[in-house]
Amino acid sequence: MVFGQVVIGPPGSGKTTYCNGMSQFLQLIGRKVAVINLDPANDALPYECAVNIEDLIKLSDVMVEHSLGPNGGLVYCMDYLEKNIDWLESKLKPLLKEHYLLFDFPGQVELFFLHDNAKNMIMELIKKLDLRLTAVHLVDAHLCSDPGKYVSALLLSLSTMLHLELPHVNVLSKIDLIESYGKLAFNLDFYTDVQDLSYLQNEISQDPRSAKYRKLTKELCEVIEDYGLVNFTPLDIQDKESVGNLVKLIDKSNGYIFAGIDASAVEFSKIAVGPVDWDYYRYPFSRRLTYKWIPFIELINSLYLLIL
């Protein structure tokens, strides 16, 4: 049984930065991590990837050969990868014994709420390789500063959750920069917990450009509230406590917390319904080291000094 994350989100939401920071954090707490780059447009990787889609297909070649733009080219690449899923399986099999997997997907949102190729590929991997994956959907925190954009982010998150049918965690990324976007109309809990959206409708109505869409906004907000599925976890990828809290939530969603635990069904149930801030034995060093984009060799040195 192998655990991992499917990292998705709109362009600019910080997926690649997230994969880089998350892989560093997970290695710091003792997990072997393999990052799989499935974004053929990502040609400047800050991390060392175990599998790179560019070894199979390149977006630039697709655009030239088939006279496609970036969006059409990305859809073509995902279709091609789905049809050549055996290639990806062969690359992943050597990693299954010891590694925790991070899948860095493209930022084209249509792939995750409209097209089926990415979903089919993920489901095929889960079935054949016995993977336990959580979809981590990143949304830039600056969208909270604009009520209309925030409603759009809610709709995108809800659509993605319903389409992918995976354990799902929505994340407000770049939360450390949120103050630079201007003062929020409500406190942060309103945006993370997705509370009574009627207050947000009143805020939108005060904008002359959005007032004429008041009825549409009201109906959309009611759809979001009726489902009751969407909430957000704030994330500062450079803060170890913030990353640690997110890892605990992800581990609970995909079942990692149950791995290696020999207990009764009652004990499993207690863990499943309990809070995410349990005494987590997999974090031996998280409270003793400052996590601020430390190069991996410095992490090893720090761990060595702690052992001494």
Key structural traits:
single chain; 7-stranded parallel sheet; disordered C terminus; globular; alpha/beta; Gpn; 13 helices; GPN-loop GTPase 2
Describe the fold and architecture.
The protein has 308 residues and is an alpha/beta fold. The chain has one domain (2-185, 231-258, 291-307): Rossmann fold. Helices cover 46% and strands 13% of the residues. The protein contains 13 helices and seven strands. It has a seven-stranded parallel beta sheet, sandwiched between helices. It is globular and about 55 Å long. Residues 278-308 have low confidence and may be disordered.
Quick description:
Keywords: GTP-binding, Hydrolase, Nucleotide-binding. The chain is an alpha/beta fold and 308 residues long.
SSE topology sketch:
Elements lengths: L1 E7 L6 H14 L3 E6 L13 E2 L6 H8 L3 H14 L1 H8 L6 E6 L5 H4 L3 H13 L1 E10 L6 H18 L3 E6 L14 H6 L4 H8 L8 H14 L5 E2 L5 H15 L10 H9 L22 H12 L1
Parallel strand pairs: 1-4, 1-5, 2-3, 2-4, 5-6, 6-7
Helix pairs in contact: 2-3, 3-6, 7-10, 9-10
Q: From the helix content, strand content and strand pairing, which structural class follows?
A: alpha/beta
- Quote the CATH topology: Rossmann fold
The parts where pLDDT drops under 50 for at least 5 residues are 278-308
Share of helix, binned: 40-55%
Q: SSE order, as H and E?
A: EHEEHHHEHHEHEHHHEHHH
First and last CA, distance = 34 Å
Q: Number of helical runs?
A: 13
Whole-number tally of structural domains: 1
Q: Give average pLDDT, whole number.
A: 85
CATH class: Alpha Beta
Architecture, CATH level 2? 3-Layer(aba) Sandwich
Radius of gyration: 20 Å
* Cross-sheet strand order for the largest sheet: 3-2-4-1-5-6-7
Tell me, what's the shape?
Answer: globular
Strand segment tally: 7
CATH superfamily: P-loop containing nucleotide triphosphate hydrolases
Oligomer: single chain
Strand content: 5-15%
Question: What composes the largest sheet?
Answer: 7 strands, parallel
InterPro entries: Gpn, Gpn2, P-loop_NTPase
GO molecular function, one term: GTP binding
Subunit structure: Binds to RNA polymerase II (RNAPII).
Keywords: GTP-binding, Hydrolase, Nucleotide-binding
